[in-house]
Automatic annotation (TrEMBL):
Domain of life: Bacteria
Topology in membrane: Multi-pass membrane protein
UniProt KW Transmembrane keyword: yes
The name this protein goes by in its record: Predicted membrane protein
Membrane-spanning intervals of the chain: 14-32, 44-64, 70-92
Organism of this sequence: Ectopseudomonas oleovorans (Pseudomonas oleovorans)
Cellular component, GO, one term: plasma membrane
This protein's record includes keyword Transmembrane helix: yes
Keywords: Cell membrane, Membrane, Transmembrane, Transmembrane helix
Subcellular location field: Cell membrane
Length: 101
């Protein structure tokens, strides 16, 4: 669509639409990758760190591409959730690093 001049990439709404679709595609690809990894290992446990990273990516998408009428309180809640998930991921990584030593 962008190549055929059907959409103007300099238009703010078009940019948000295309960037949002790209972010959604990245989230879906990462989710598929994590499911395929579990299927190939024949295990039924999905790594918690992978799920946390996918959640952070999805929430970051909501913050980067906000809805037009989003309330400031919702932005604060999304930001707090991203921080909490980031802290959780960091703590899990630290635990894994200490186990490997």
């Amino acid at each position: 669509m962008l190549v055929m001049d059907a959409l103007n990439p300099l238009d703010h709404e078009v940019f948000q639409l295309v960037f949002g679709a790209t972010m959604t595609l990245l989230i879906a690809m990462e989710f598929k990758h994590s499911i395929v990894k579990v299927a190939l290992r024949k295990e039924s446990i999905i790594q918690v760190k992978t799920v946390i990273l996918i959640a952070i990516l999805a929430l970051a998408r909501k913050l980067i591409i906000p809805e037009p009428d989003i309330a400031p309180a919702k932005v604060a809640v999304l930001a707090g959730t991203v921080l909490a998930l980031g802290l959780t991921y960091w703590l899990m990584r630290e635990r894994d690093d200490r186990k490997s030593e």
